[in-house]
Design brief:
By secondary structure, the protein is an alpha/beta fold. It is built from 20 helices and 13 strands. The longest helix is centred in the N-terminal third of the chain and has 19 residues. About 40% of the residues are buried. Bound molecules: zinc ion (ZN) (2 copies).
């Protein structure tokens, strides 16, 4: 059975109604580990619904958390905002309503593309609407119990007058510089590093927030959460997961949600992606460079407790090929290979939306990598594909949308993470190059041959090959001549395929010009 089915069945044994939660603190670019959390939850959610469960999928943005420091991606002027809630700090680009929204809005938008549409909650709104008020009171009334749990499990010593509540200073607006000292319902006395001392009435909303270790379990009860995966950094002994479970049961009298610890996503050559450290590839970039079904496939085919290596270089192309192969197996066009476990379920869970009834049109992904560099827009790419017979004349709407979406992802990848050796540019004029006599010979004969040549990859490849053989010129030199006159570089995509996508008369003109 697929891991998501196993998890869904375990949940259904307890009850039919479930709230699956996941979330993020939008303190910087969303890290790729969060993609795993979201998609893991989405998989369990889908399996629950499929099995008749009454499930809800929620996504909580901890935008009421304070800014912890001036991260490397921020200007030094952000020093003044350290300690303030992320929802109350201006956005770095000036186009969003807050710092939190700067990182959140477009990310949430791209989730839709991968078929994830959770109900979004913002902690800042929940606090300001007073939804946390009761939980705050319960926490303050159980200060000793919470202190004992935290000290016993996490081994850290809390200050003598510690309270499980961070007041937002009425003068400077910071959460992390205040020191609450005394609680006597409904007032909390505090002092702040800015010099202010005062007291707040906890019956009024948005005056402060629960510390993270208390906030998390409080929210489980408030929202009725029954399942929430967490990264292994939270699942250590004495970590937030363990103290949260205990606080949930002993303070909030709420059974803690199902535990699922997921492993990190490692970036090839970079090690583990940790939530609090900067990442070389952000979640949004991962979404933009990987076709949606392929990104889902990467998560679905791996057990949550196994780490995933994401390769933003050539490995991405291999990953897409693997997905396409799986699709062929699913539709019975290819035989199942050894080790292809649960391929049916994996394929179905990889679909952002509906499961196709017939196999989508296949075009090797690497071809798009070449075509996206020959043509600048999808209509131009499509024109080449139609002209060269790589697409049927009657292209189905679904297939076109699918290919267009893939072409967009290829374009983003080429502009960002693609290694240099797959990149090229067809020069609009003959580049300034010096050809060797051997190369001139190749091009001269090629020029003579082109008019009668069938303009297809294999025929073109063979023609160049034959010239080299006939004239006893190393084949590499022959191909280099072709790349030189068109790209102004020594290497390029497979020559036969590459040339076949260019117009014959364009190639003829260029070769003629080169040997004039
Ligand atoms: Zn912004
Ligand atoms: Zn202050």
């Amino acid at each position: 059975m697929h891991w998501a089915d196993v998890l869904a069945e375990e949940l259904l044994k307890k009850q039919t109604k479930h709230v699956l939660a996941t979330g993020i603190t939008p303190s910087g670019p969303i890290h790729i580990g969060n993609m795993r959390e979201i998609l893991t939850t989405d998989a369990v959610y889908r399996c629950l619904v499929e099995k008749g469960g009454d499930a809800e999928f929620i996504y909580i943005c901890d935008d009421y958390d304070p800014l912890r420091k001036v991260y490397p991606h921020l200007p030094s002027s952000y020093e003044q905002f350290v300690g303030k809630p992320l929802s109350e700090i201006p956005c770095p680009c000036g186009k969003h309503t807050s710092y939190a929204d700067h990182y959140l809005v477009s990310f949430l938008g791209s989730l839709h593309e991968i078929g994830v549409n959770p109900q979004v909650y913002r902690a800042s709104e929940m606090y300001k609407k007073g939804e946390y008020n009761e939980s705050i009171q319960i926490a303050l009334e159980n200060t000793d119990k919470i202190r004992t749990i935290l000290e016993t499990l996490s081994g850290r010593q809390m200050p003598k007058d510690w309270l499980p509540y961070n007041v937002k200073c009425e003068t400077c607006g910071r959460l992390s510089t205040t020191h609450p000292s005394l609680y006597e319902y409904p007032m909390v006395e505090y002092s702040c590093d800015c010099g202010h001392t005062g007291e707040v009435d906890i019956r009024k909303s948005g005056q402060g927030k629960l510390p993270w270790r208390v906030d998390w379990p409080a929210r489980w009860r408030m929202l009725g959460v029954t399942f929430e995966p967490c990264g292994k950094d939270h699942a250590t002994v004495g970590g937030t997961r363990e103290t949260g479970a205990k606080i949930s049961e002993e303070v909030y009298r709420y059974p803690h949600p199902g535990l699922l610890v997921y492993e990190f996503i490692m970036l090839k050559g970079q090690g583990a992606m940790h939530s609090s450290k900067g990442t070389a590839v952000s979640g949004e970039e991962m979404l933009k460079m990987t076709p949606p079904e392929v990104l889902r496939f990467l998560i679905m085919r791996n057990q949550p407790n196994r780490h995933i290596v994401f390769d933003s270089g050539l490995g991405l192309l291999t990953l897409v090929d693997e997905y396409d192969k799986e699709e062929e197996v699913y539709f019975g066009k290819e035989a199942e290979t050894k080790g292809m476990k649960e391929f049916k379920k994996i394929y179905e869970l990889s679909q952002p939306y509906h499961i196709p009834k017939t196999m989508p049109l296949h075009l090797p992904y690497r071809h798009l990598v070449t075509l996206d560099q020959i043509a600048k827009t999808w209509p131009e790419v499509k024109e080449i594909l139609l002209r060269t017979g790589q697409l049927p004349k009657k292209l189905k709407k679904d297939d076109e949308e699918h290919l267009m979406q893939r072409a967009e992802h290829v374009r983003f990848w080429l502009a960002t993470f693609a290694p240099d050796d797959v990149k090229f540019e067809v020069k609009i004029a003959l580049p300034k190059i010096i050809l060797t006599p051997e190369q001139e010979t190749v091009l001269y004969i090629l020029k003579e041959k082109i008019p009668d040549l069938t303009w297809e990859p294999e025929a073109i490849h063979n023609a160049i090959y034959e010239i080299a053989e006939e004239k006893k010129i190393p084949i590499k030199i022959a191909f280099t001549a072709v790349y030189q006159v068109l790209l102004g570089q020594e290497k390029g995509p497979r020559a036969g395929f590459f040339l076949s996508n260019l117009e014959k008369k364009f190639v003829l003109r260029r070769v003629t010009e080169a040997v004039k």
